[in-house]
Design goal:
Aminopeptidase, eight-stranded mixed beta sheet, alpha+beta, 6 helices, about 30% helix, acyltransferase activity, transferring groups other than amino-acyl groups, 8 strands, GNAT family N-acetyltransferase
Length: about 170
């Protein structure tokens, strides 16, 4: 796996040592809305996932990378999901774990690295993401990277007793 290096952060493959970090993210109820999670994950399940995460994106249709600072602080995760080789597209998801690390440019740099990797190394034609209408920071992050709002899915997600709209954004590599 190529390590994707930026100015302030780098993206790397997940390692078994990342168990506690991923466990903390997957079990943080405050971010379940972003990941469409409904139930907690056990360390056992995450450990099993980490044992198989090395498989090729063409086989498992997903690539999850850890966002790390150069002083080796784990900052978050960035994913390609629903990898569709035939149609040359994939979904993108990103999470910077700690609120104090958000809006510091880490997400922007990670997204830029992943977009460039997706188009230059994986040969993808387009990327897409789904973002809650109320998630202004993520909308800004993706639109500043060139993603365009192409649709609004009304009453798409049921969250805390009410329905929320969700935008579909795309970035097409011309």
């Amino acid at each position: 796996m190529i390590t994707l290096k930026g100015e302030h952060i780098y993206l790397r493959a997940l390692e078994p040592e990342d168990l506690e970090f991923i466990y903390a993210i997957e079990n943080d109820e405050s971010i379940w809305e972003i990941s469409n999670t409904q139930t907690p994950y056990s360390k056992f399940l995450i450990k099993q996932y980490l044992e198989h995460v090395h498989k090729d994106i063409f086989e498992v249709k997903q690539l999850r990378l850890l966002i790390s600072s150069y002083n080796n602080v784990n900052l978050g995760l960035i994913d390609l999901f629903d990898f569709d080789f035939k149609n040359k597209r994939a979904g993108v998801g990103i999470l910077v774990k700690e609120p104090d690390d958000r809006l510091q440019g880490y997400g922007k740099e990670a997204l830029s690295l992943l977009v460039n990797y997706s188009f230059s190394h994986l040969g993808l034609h387009q990327l897409y993401c789904n973002i809650s209408e109320s998630n202004k920071a993520s909308i800004k992050l993706f639109t500043n990277q060139g993603f365009e709002k192409v649709g609004l899915k009304k009453a798409w997600n049921y969250v805390n007793g009410s329905y929320k709209n969700e935008y579909l954004l795309q970035l097409i590599n011309n």
